[in-house]
Here is the input.
Amino acid sequence: MKKYILGLLAITALFACKEEVKEETLAKKDEVKEYTPIQDKDLENAVIYEANIRQYSPEGTFNEFTKDIPELKELGVKVIWLMPVFPISEKNRKAKADLMVEDIKDPKEREKYLGSYYAVADYEEVNPDLGTPDDLKNLIKTAHDNGMYVILDWVANHTGWDNRWIKEYPDFFTKDKNGKMMHPEGTDWTDTVDLNYDNKDLWTYMTQAMASWIERYDVDGFRCDVAHEVPTEFWNYATKELEDRKPLFMLAESEKKDLFKEAFDMGYNWEGHHLMNELTKGDFDVKEWDYYMERNEKNYEKDDILMNFITNHDENSWNGSVKERMGSKANTMLTFSYMIPGMPLIYSGQEYGMDYRLKFFEKDTIPKTKGETWDLMKKLGELKNNNAALNGGKNPASYTRLETSNDNSIYAIKREKNGDVIYYIVNLSTEREKVKVKGLSGRITDAIRGGSVDFNEGDFLDFPPYGYRIFTVEK
Here is the structure.
């Protein structure tokens, strides 16, 4: 009887403990944080999430996305980037291939095509298909309450063909030799009209439009579409004007170096992304990545941030899903994007292991079943948020390339800051490799699989093709 009572007490204590943990987890998830404008320190351990509101849920609304914002905390998300939320132009709206919506005769078929987010009809209004202005305000407040920041996708290079500025301010637009407005030269963006930044009045109006989103919706910055196609001088002017209102986070869809000097905090790591695609092919010499990192160190300043990604809206819709491009190596390259200097990006659906291309001009939706990719992102996000060795902002952790017994296929690095150390070793070949890593020693813990071991520099590590290990070190 005594054993039974003791056992019962133990079981009761266990359930009580589990309930406490559960309640603590729920409390943590529901915890409201005091909002303060974004600062440089917030960028050091941030993960950024690209929210495709139209495709995020069957409803395609702000409200459906807002419900899941607390879930994104589990992935370490600190910055939410909303794809354009403006009304979409109807004139010259694209459908598929070279067809415009007006070319499609069947009215039912025509209704399917919702147009490009990047063909803006009005810079100061909300697309009613996504919800109301109050719905958007609630989304941003919910993000703020959860310790996150929201940046808005801004399309400054061009507008849609029925943007109100076309009638009100025709001098804002580029004209061809016949004096007619034109789409951006050298592109197939025929659903848009090119803006002419030789007109300085445009600078004032565009900046005022951006400012209205700060004043009315309290956004925390902007992701600026094809930023390199707009004069850097405009961005310098606009950012200075906007930051007189509040501190902002500015992301350029570009690697153009002079954009970082004054206007932008972060740019796209396009070159790194294309090299990551190459790394999955099995015949890529890892030294090419080393040369790339050396170029970055030479060409960028220490406080320049690059956004690392294995997918985004363009890559997914036009170049293929992660599975199409990287196959079984996708999760290896996901870890790669978190371990190198910079800020990792998650694109809507990626967290659920989405293995198809989202339609760009039509309604689609992402999967919502958590699995292997979610679990891995959760662990990577926790590391990114809490281990200073992965700081990747304006005061990043150090990056040291480690020698190995096979430097052609094994990539090994050490990241370190404030006493935190992370080792990342990955076999970027199609062959199994047993390797020694110079400098790896001490009591190491596998940050993904768990378990600790005392390791000596001369010991071997065994890696399957595209196998990886992330080790933390006890202080």
User: Anything to note?
Assistant: Confidence is low (pLDDT under 50) at residues 1-27. The chain has two domains: 36-87+122-157+195-396, 410-473.
